[in-house]
Amino acid sequence: MFRTNRDRPLTEYQKNELIDFVTGTMNHVLEAGQTIQLIEEYDLLIRVVLQEESFVGAIYALSDCRIDASGLVDFPEKPLFVGTRDYYNVQDHEYELDQQSLDRMDGQSREALILVSGLFLAFKTEAAAQPGELSEDEQQRILPVLKTCLQQTYVDREPGYGTLEEFDTLIMTTPMDNGMSLALFELSECVMQLGTPVELPMNPLYVGVLDHREGFTGNANSEIQGTKHEQVAQYIHMCLVQSLRTA
After folding, report:
1. Residue 194 half-sphere exposure, CB side, CA atoms within 13 Å?
2. What are the tens digits of pLDDT across the range 192-213?
3. CA 91 – CA 87 distance, rounded (Å)
4. Could you tell me the residue ranges of all domains in the chain?
5. Full-model pTM
6. What span, in angstroms and rounded, lies between the C-alpha atoms of 231 and 211?
7. Rounded-to-integer distance, Cα 79 and Cα 95, Å
8. Alpha-carbon span 56 to 60, nearest angstrom
9. Which candidate, 59, 66, 123, places its Cα nearest to that of 93?
10. What is the distance, to the nearest Å, from the Cα of residue 153 to the centroid of all Cα atoms in its chain?
């Protein structure tokens, strides 16, 4: 016989709510680089950060966290769950659960914690499901060009341009009040004069907006799916997310 409603197993509806919650949380991390979300019904707080090519997640008892009026959180020393998993390979992960704290939780909160932590470890990014990745050498040939464009835009507050001839790609960055925008174009379709584009194709390969208050959004042209342009766009997308997290 169940002692209280809090000791009853989660219903299918409650489980589906948690699945949707974790999906939304992870998608927000992909856009903004990090997030803190509350699950008040189960006295849980989840924090996820994207570090290089890994997700680092921690789940705390919400009642043990102190949140001030500005929303800043003072976390307890030990989380209920902490885990690290690879961005691409969901099988590459490690985690730790505080079993003593779990034993003191009511049944529904404990089940919710285990479900959410498992969903975090198993979440598949779109990039993980798509075939083909740039080699490390290819990434290293893109990175200096991207950094130059970002420096022109962030430091000099001017539009930045860079060409990746081997990938037939033009990078264009433009300053905004709270960040920058970035677009990728097919280089062979651009009209260039002295290294500066004077005429661009109507449809970019990729467009991203980096806003230090609102986060990051990026969208690729569906026509580049399965091409080298898509791999370049995915890599630059990751770099922009990291730029937001460390800015």
Report:
1. 0
2. 888 788 899 899 999 988 776 7
3. 10
4. 5-126, 136-246
5. 0.54
6. 23
7. 11
8. 14
9. 123
10. 22
